Records
---
Amino acid sequence: MIFNYNKYSINPNKLIHLSGLKRGSILDFGCGKGVLESKKIDFKNINKIVLYDKKKKLIKFLTKKYEKKKFKIYFSLKSILKKERCNIVFFSSVVQYISKAKLKKLVQQLSKNKHIDSIIFSDVPYLPRIFEFVFLPLINLNRFIFVLKILFSKKYIKLNYYKYSKKDFNIFKKDFDVKFYKNLHDLKLMRYSVVLKKN
Ligand SMILES: C[S@@+](CC[C@H](N)C(=O)[O-])C[C@H]1O[C@@H](n2cnc3c(N)ncnc32)[C@H](O)[C@@H]1O
């Protein structure tokens, strides 16, 4: 299912800042329709942005949205890890669709890549979905309406959803320094961001 909350964008320079690097390349993992704001990018700090999603249907939309040469679009993680030197991997509103066991394997796979320095997770939910749903209209009406529109579709109902407590990130402490931040997205009270930085 392809969806994202299109009203929100993130300045990629924020990710460079959070990673502590001066300059780097970013892999937007599970990019969907793309949350990184292409117009605000300062390419003095960013070498390139690699967009990756498992949904090949996105190709038309993404090629239209991200015209610049410095964006690369992939639908195979293996190819990215082979061909591209990415320093930061950014998961924006993605971990809730990945089981804890799968995320552990994925982070292990990413950490083996010598170029990857930081992994940033944003929009990580820690509350039960129903709780978020009840409070969402009070916090962000636009996002509530967006969720309402897709809520009753079969694909959405079938989608597995996982919440993550901060403790769930303890398993990465062996290989990474783990730091928690305010959510980069709009739901500051209900969700958070995490930065894993290679030891
Ligand atoms: C809620 S959307 C978020 C899209 C975008 N990152 C954003 O912040 O607006 C979740 C996206 O993650 C992608 N996704 C989920 N699991 C994935 C996986 N294991 N590998 C690649 N993409 C994945 C989905 O296809 C979907 O486009």
Note: The longest helix spans residues 100-111.
---
Amino acid sequence: MWVRHRVFVQEQGVAPEIEWDEIDRDAIHLAAISGGRVVGAARVFSDGAEWHVGRVAVLQQYRGRGVGTLLMRVAEGIAQERGALEVALNAQAPVVEFYLRLGYSGEGSIFFEAGIPHRRMIKRLTELLTEKALSLELTL
Ligand SMILES: CC(C)(COP(=O)(O)OP(=O)(O)OC[C@H]1O[C@@H](n2cnc3c(N)ncnc32)[C@H](O)[C@@H]1OP(=O)(O)O)[C@@H](O)C(=O)NCCC(=O)NCCS
């Protein structure tokens, strides 16, 4: 949760009352840990109709080292284990490329959330992802 505060509230200026919402109560929360420190976070949840990944955040000094990819793979694996055939997310426009590289496709037009332009993206889950995620090696 501290990572989300650092990245979304402090770095991006999202209001805390928007950052923390009712989804947090029931979502599955992921934390990426390096050297005993939480360096990344994400949440995965179902709204009853589809599975979503959201609030993907990596501390600035740990970016570009595969932490975001690892969080996404684990989140997708968790959704898949619970029966998801696809995962949806609302990507901030500047990071659409990050999700494209992970196999997501854009859907519909740009919309604003917390004052930030977003695009809905989806990915069909076609392979078993959890083992692949666990075998990813990180050197931080
Ligand atoms: C987006 C974010 C989670 C990515 O995490 P990360 O740990 O840096 O990502 P990775 O190191 O796994 O990057 C995977 C690939 O995506 C690319 N990538 C990462 N962030 C990118 C960006 N903002 N724009 C374009 N490409 C990006 C990386 O270069 C890397 O490419 P490579 O495989 O060719 O090396 C991180 O930059 C972040 O926390 N950003 C601020 C919060 C945010 O905007 N979250 C998304 C909300 S929708």
Note: Residues 26 and 120 are 22 Å apart (CA to CA).
---
Amino acid sequence: MGNKKFDPATRIQRLENFGEFGGVNPSITDSSTFTFMDAKTMLDTFHGETEGCFLYSRHWNPSNKALSDAIAAMEGTEGAWVTGSGMSAITTVLLQLCNAGDHIITSVTTYGGTYAFLKNYLPKFNIDVTFVNISDLESVEAAVRPNTKLIYTESVTNPMLQVSDIPKLSKIAKQHDIQLVVDNTFTPMILSPYNLGADIVVYSMTKFINGKNDGVAGAICASNEFIAAISDVNDGTAMLLGPVLDPMRSSSILKNLHTLHVRMMQHSKNALYLAKRFREIGLKFSYPGLPEHPDHELMNSIRNEEFGYGGMIAIDMETAERAASLMELMQQRGVGYHAVSLGYFKTLFSNSGKSTSSEVPEDVQLAMGMSPGLVRFSVGLDHDIESTFDLIHSCLKDLKFV
Ligand SMILES: *Cc1c(COP(=O)(O)O)cnc(C)c1O
């Protein structure tokens, strides 16, 4: 069973920044380089041997350190490193863990960009990838080879909302001495993958964590050893490819992180309400918060209860044409925006097959059960969700879809 005592929200609440002349928010680092009083300290810092010293902002800077410490606290990992995008967090981890000739096992349903990187980009480096149904643990285990370095999955997959059994995947990974890497973008606070046995947790902070759709960012949560390895000046992937987050953005994300728990509860509450009403009107949809979802019990056994089941719902309109007319009408009538991305305060909807999963070939989309008419909702923070449902219902009725 999940550890119900794990409390990411209180871990964030307990972060403090005060002292004589200290602002309540950490100061923004408006510098790419930092001064040293003596040459030896500079040299030691280059070799990663000095605490609290900053050399150059691509490596570390105080604003990114403050945000990294906060994300690590939320996740329960020793350390974290924040990146310029979710994709750079993912690609940094994969390129750090794998050498040419290595092998990765991944869920076939992942974010389209991740799928494209695994499928189209990694062959350049002769890194092999096996795509599996991540819920079929036997096929995961059967895919392990002597050169396998890691299992990659999303805690709740995009856009199918399949829940990964992190404790069991972790057991398989440990048995074979390989790493379990989990993308927790859809379910910050709700699931705590490291606490459930993942080795490394990655985020697109562009989504729920920031929650404002005003910037792109990512995070890598891992052991101090791994964070030191990716930021090593000689061979660290983060240091050498340079996907650093800008400190200005970092500082604004840190402030938004302090409201994440309240936002997640409201996203979840609204999504559960809509899911129940969708069930009443006989819509075909997927939401892990209802008993009809095949992973509902699994979700119950691993989630941090008070944050609900998340803000994402996938409805099936069967064809891309029907999905398009519904989305256009919903936007006209003020349900939210027809836009990709998620975790925003307003409701966003998009047809996954034609947008964020368009990198996944159509035959693979069909094989994983993704309908061409799948409309992915990121439910917003609406105060009056009942009237939002009424608007959606009126659109469905006027289009004669219910
Ligand atoms: C958006 C997203 C990403 C990519 O993040 P960016 O910040 O856009 O680079 C990765 N994984 C998931 C699940 C996402 O939704």
Note: The chain has a mean pLDDT of 95.
